[in-house]
Amino acid sequence: MLTLLFAGAAHASFEGATIQATIYSPDLSSPWYDEVAVVGPGIEFRNYPAPDPATNIDISSTNILITYYRTAEWSAAEFNGPVFEAQTPITPISSVSINPATNMIGLDASRISFTPNSVSINWNGLGFDTTTVVSLDVRFGEPIPTLEKAALMTMIVLLGAIGSFLIRRFVSN
Question: Is the pTM of this model over 0.90?
């Protein structure tokens, strides 16, 4: 009986992950401010961004919740907003959707993008006030297990032995 051992699969959530929140402006090649936090209980990014604080950002296992505590407008630019990027292994992000709690006028799915380990929001030209909430629901794909080296070597040796046996059996007949 052959037992396959799996190791190294990431959790299907942000919980415990180290997240870097970077504001980019006027495009995605121009980082303006970044900060790093580990996702756990409470608000991960308070008074964010530090040079011009306007928000608190709470990342839970499958949600990014941004609340505003002042009134302003994001300047017009090709890209003006945050990118939340996992700095530790996570199960690949499979989708991001705008939660119905979101009330930012003008924010729609075309302003949200994601990669397997990041979520981006383009606030280009949008306004906000003390009642504005942005809530994004994040779904993760299935973990991609990796075979342990010993299990992989066992499989290779076993397949080689079976192949060798079959070749000898058919060649000798």
Answer: no
